[in-house]
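Quick illustration, no need to memorize.
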Amino acid sequence: MSTERKHAYIVLGLGYGDEGKGLTTDYLCLNSNNPLVVRFNGGHQAGHTVSTLDGKTHVFCNLGAGSFRGVPTYWSNFCTFFPEGVLTEISHLPITPSLIVDLLCPITTHYDILYNRAVEAFRSSDKHGSCGLGFGATLERQTFKDLRFEVQDLASIRKVQTKLAAIRRYYRKKIHLETHFLFDDFDHDTADGEFIDSIITLDELKKAGQLRFASAKDVFGSECSWDTLIFEGAQGIMLDMDFGLYPNVTRSNTTSRNALEIISRNIPSEIDIEIYYITRCYATRHGAGPFRESLELVLVNDTNESNVCNEHQGAFRKGYLDLANLNYALASDKSFSNDIPKSLVITCLDQLDGEEIKYYKNHNLEQTHFLDFPLLLDCDFEKYLVSRSPISEKLLTIF
């Protein structure tokens, strides 16, 4: 184990997600000594795109964005865990990733996903905004003691069967009361069987050394071997459960709050912390909720956009940045990060037809050269990086 001071980087989005957190996490993995990626909020509904110099591109949902570089992922207890999603993602990868999952992670089941999609569809034009993957439903169910289902429960197939039966009863009643869907029209026995098969397959990954279930104490104890901890955030601060505009929020702390709690609880004081705030050079929102869309915004080189219109999130909306929103996000996170050194990363500059970033200030549309944009924000950034490419090796440090 290294005797040098450890480093921690916290990667946060300043918007509604899709800012470039995967790119930034991959960049930090490339430029760090002996790193571990830590997912500290959200679940498999997050999608972080990484592209490599040799032509690989993948949207990481159940693994950290450093996986292409062989960097292991710790899935903390602040995240939900979807066994079937993990197996599907690993089967599509040309690599053998390493994943450590906290024993206290809440489990997402097919029932949580079914309810999530049913209730959001029933809301029709009053949608809250959802990826349709059961994240919020899982955490809501976890508030009931008898319905809690965590990774530590996967050690017993009998216990898994008991949990699934209780969760099925819960959602049969809930879906009947809250939607017009007929719960028993679905083949739940088959879905239960597939879920249990996935647990058995996870055991095979554990035996192969590819997957480990562990406590935070196991990961960060006295024998902690990682020199750098890269905390990969999910969604953006504008969707935070406390700071976002309800009800169009996620059931998660999308600020540095969870990451700093993990550090304070588990890691010795000899650690240097930095925060990287990420935004595209234009604003986006994928999901329901207030957003100033700018149809006149013209983008180039955006043919590889991974966000597409779908039945759960709707259209991927784009607009100009709003200084008020960016500064609100920074102020919201300052409640936790205070004097921690901060850096800014602006991505997707290659998608602008020029070097000017347009933005709203006091409802007026203005513009500035991208080199000067950090001066508009209420934060003294120690570093400023920009991206003109989806490949992290091409990320450019301005100062």
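The chain has two domains: 6-103+212-397, 110-204.
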